[in-house]
Amino acid sequence: MSGNTMGSNGTTSLPKGRESRMALRHASITADLLAVLAAMIAAIAMRGVVAPLLDLGTEPFVLAWPLAMPFLAVLGAFYSMGLYERDAFMSRPLHAWTITQASFVAFIASAATAFLIGSGWFNVTRLVLVLTFLIFVVLDLFLRLVLLHLMYVSWVARCLPLGLVVGDSLESRRIAERLRVLRGFDRVRSVIVSDSAQSWAGAVTMGLARHTPCDAPASSVFVDSSSLSPREVIEVVVAAQSRGADAYVISGLLGPLDGSRLLTGLFHTPVTRVRGTLARPPAYALKRTMDIVGSASILLLLSPVIAVVAAIIKTTSPGPVFYSQTRVGLRGKTFQFLKFRSMYSDSDAGAHEDYVRAMINGEAEPMGTDANGNGVFHIVDDPRVTPIGRFIRKYSLDEIPQLVNVLRGDMSLVGPRPPLPYEAREYDSWQAQRLEVQSGITGVWQVIGRNRVSFDEMTFQDLMYGMNRGLWVDLLLCLRTIPAALLGSGL
Fold first, then answer.
1. By residue range, what is the domain housing residue 38?
2. Are residues 447 and 324 in the same domain?
3. How many CB atoms within 10 Å of residue 325?
4. Within a 10 A sphere around the Cβ of 155, how many other Cβ atoms?
5. pLDDT along the chain (491 residues), means of 10
6. Which residue, among 418, 393, 392, 386, has the nearest Cα to 405 in the 3D structure?
7. pTM for this structure?
8. Under 8 Å between Cβ of 254 and 227
9. Is residue 491 part of a domain?
């Protein structure tokens, strides 16, 4: 990965800023598991005293499978709420509140599982679960807010991390002010390009080059997307990563990529940390397993819907039920893309092609507005679309056959939408980067941006997904697709 340093023996090592992030994450996981174990041992010891007071009986305690749930629930809840990120230690009050929330979520998950499988509510095992989490919260708050916090403070004192805020707007000034009150990032420098010959990425590179504590960059770069174009945001992110810095993007277009609300709570505005690069190989086996299991399950679940939609299409307009189209996938490889037919057969696509080309080149004007008054970048009231086609498009039913593409391996459940060949030929070098990510049925653009953002903004969303892709992000995007499709608001 770019930004790595070379050790004395010639091997590649991570910058110390990233080493500290990994060390703190491992220490946090260890502390949480030890806190659960200690709390459970204490709860088992206390049950003999508490159970008689609640008239629960004192039957001999038996080790049962529900006792494993707290360990799994804590790891899942704490991970999903961002508590295994170094950022959690920037604000003690937010850290404490998030720990309390995550512990409650973990308790509900553990107790609900035990209750659904077992009988009754307050038998001995469930009493142990209640006591375990009451004790766990106290122990974990101590371990994290005292012992692990000292580890974080030590890193701050040693590395003197610098926060670079890139941009010149009210939003970037708010971020700079907020950073000054967060532990570890009170050293803040604003990066504003005043010379037209200088690029934003070049200014960031120069700013980071002057900051080398810990023998390697340990800075964080906060990019204000309202001050820069989508292309410039990506360039700044890549420049920051090349210097070994953490990159954060301030944007309302990336909500599903955050994965937790911790960063929004820290900075009081939508912020997403860039967790990788486009060149970082994804966990392909895990992602492919999710694609196969997910697509097969959804096809089976929706088989009655597929039959009904197919019958309606066949009886309401002449032509085939399914529509096959050549699309461009990963690294330019073409495949046959499947959809339910939503247009009249032999429709002329000339006007659509002209508009798409103009949109890719930044020359298209919105063709209308949505219910919120936002510009819509697609042909409104397209005469080529059949009446039933408008309905299945609104609720994304025309997309269901693409699950077959996922099973074949042409696409993934989550990823950028695959372009038509003539669209791909219009891409410039930065837009073509979206072909470096496996195409998919749903994604950031499909959930919160479709037809309401420009093509460059869509490309920005796709590239940011490529830099943040992972199983948890994919799962969140799939879950958010469900209400978007049912309400006809996203896809």
1. 12-157
2. yes
3. 12
4. 23
5. 39 52 92 96 80 59 71 94 92 95 94 68 65 95 95 84 88 89 82 74 79 57 92 93 89 79 87 88 82 96 95 93 94 95 80 79 68 61 84 90 96 94 93 94 83 87 92 89 71 43
6. 418
7. 0.85
8. no
9. no
